[in-house]
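Protocol step 4 of 6: record predicted structures for both targets in the notebook before any analysis. Target 1:
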Amino acid sequence: MTATKSHRKLTIGITTAAILAAGVGVANADVSPSAPAGAVAGSSRHSGWAGITREQVQIDFGKGWVTKAELTYPSNARGRLPVVVFLHGSGHNDMNQTLPEGKGSTFVPLAQAAGREGFATLRFNKRGVTDIGPVESTDPAQLLPENPYRQIQLDAASVIRFAARSPRIDPSKIYLLGHSEGTNVAANLAGDPKKYGIPKPAGVVEMGVVGKPIEDLLTFQIYGRLLLQLHDEFDVDGDGRLTATEATDGLVGLPKAEADQFRSVLLDGRKVSAATDRDHDGRIAIDAEAGAVLRETTHIDDYPNVPGLDPYVVSYAKDFARFPTVTQALPKFRGPTLMLNGENDLQTPARAAIAADAAVAAAGNKDHKLVIYPGMAHTMNITPKFHPVFGEPDKQVITEIQGWLKSHR
């Protein structure tokens, strides 16, 4: 077993290969003795476990996979507690949703905040992940199963059933907190709990909301974001067309590979590209001219068989597309919802979260809230829009979730 980085750069977006294969099966679990604060499953960079007991548990997902998980709860707690179950973004994520490049984790600070409000939490390694890192199994049947998104749903349901059977948990107070792919999983399960054999969740928290079909989101990630960048960072006078000066200035400061990609579309030396400037007016229309060339060079019209897209991602996207989006599924859930999205999110755009929240409201749910954070990207941290850097959720995001949990306890 080795720690791999093959998909880590995109690990929390929905563009990466995800996980797992079919069969609902009731999850069995083994619980180890209580672990002291700072035990192995937590990140060493975090010291916020004081007053929180951590139990290392195992959950049987079926099909030959028993996953490691961690159940936490306030050490002085008495009686059954509400619990937050964490649902990852896409990729082979560990229970902390450890971020690439040593940038910390998504879930540890949120679990600690929930614990401070009297909640238990349950975090788990995805199928195929053996330990924090993440460390991946060498078994392709676990890492690359058929019907991968369907299996992710079923494994999440197993975790929820495990939580419901725990003597420390109030089964009527199970909250789902999903990030990216996890927002769709949470919405699918909450929208039809009987189908998945789980108790009705008490509430749903969504971070980086999958409010549009996966084809739309992948098209935006691969193609649309390039046009957005041309409009936002190149088109100084906002007329939708680029002069040679605007194109040249826009390349300044970009990473070489990115600059080369745009240069090949926009410029021939000091002049605009004659091949792109199809009406020969000396300016490049971003949408009609640059957009047409970029459609050809990205091969986005061949979706899902886009060159360079990992075959497993293609399989994942096809399977994902069979299920409702958050916008379609979450309105069927009649409990409280909280949606959070970064305004600069280029993987699950804020507009998709706005559409999802509007659908929840239109369905008659009075207890819903949407927060769009300026300056934040997909991992809910403040970072440049077109060159985001991974980071743990900003303090204001943690405070928002903590307050929402407190008010719905």
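Target 2:
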Amino acid sequence: MTQTLPAGERPEASTPTPPGDTPAADGAAIAVAPQWKLVWWGFKRHRLAVAGLIVTAVIYMIAIFAEFLAPYSSGHYDPDYAYAPPQRIHVVDDGDWGLYVYGYKSEQDPETLDLTWTTDTSKKIPVGLFARGEPYKLLGLIPGDRHLIGAKEGTKAPPMYLLGADRNGHDLLSRIIHGTRVSMSIGLIGVVVAFLLGVVLGGISGFFGGIVDTAIQRAVEFFMSIPTLPLWLGLAAAVPPGWGPLKRYFAVTVILSMIAWTHLARVVRSRFLSLREEDFVTAAKVDGASQPRIIFRHMLPSFSSYLIASLTLSIPGMILAETSLSFLGLGLQSPVVSWGVLLQEAQNIRAVATAPWLLLPGVTVVIAVLSLNFLGDGLRDAADPYKH
């Protein structure tokens, strides 16, 4: 039934919505858009995922430029300032603008010999951006001595502990920044290794079937039947104690990868079992395509969005696993600096009672895991843009 308009009025013409604004409302744009663009449109509507992407990018930038961002090196310490509390940055000094922190003043209990730290307002330590400090090599390649923030007097100035110090007088802020590189990279490397194992073994199992499928699935069930924590403890204890930090780093990565590939292998196998009977796979076989080409050119790209989401969601588990092993003393150990190694300092009652800032590495773990989980959830939801 048509609607009659009053005289003099004309029907309003509908204006097409630009695909860049609200692509879900423009069916023509969706019909011709490539897969990556559909995923991106769906991902942008997930605000927590976008926030997770930004935070994750910032964390990895911190890991890359750790030497520049940290006021001190990971090995810098001053035993005279053990358990020194965090210092607060002041901006205005008697009407003059400039960054500075107050120094420390300590008093020792004659009976318990415990130090009590107070703020010494008579001692001001000027602080500057891009200040000169300890020399370093960025990523082991680029020499430099500029730090994002530091005392203007450089190494001659009293220590500046913006997040406090540990029992050895290490700057906690610097060690958290340096630990970001180890903890985030071990998660990334471990997930990549587990991802390759899961995709390759799961793909072979689902594509060929038969005896190959049975053998791989029995191996998957064997690994899945072993309790995770005892397996971690057993494999970590098998690492020779005399190994250096680098060897131990890669050993922990391999240990974590050995138990993280089974779920992905199951999922990839089920996808391959359903896809190998599809028309496009049959057409590729009739066309004479080789088996590797069918797997990597036709079958894997058909659910690549799910693989990307699974890869992102697996990194938090790796980070938590490394943190747990290091916290228990079975993973990375000093002089390697990671978030789990730093949390070892928080195992005694003094850390909770008198030095609560030693728990701050746990906050960084929570932030990293949440941001990666939000990012993975957004990618998973955007994997099928036609549902939005």
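Step 5 preliminary note on target 2. Residues 172-208 form the longest helix (37 residues). Residues 71 and 150 are 5 Å apart (CA to CA).
Proceed to step 6 after PI sign-off.
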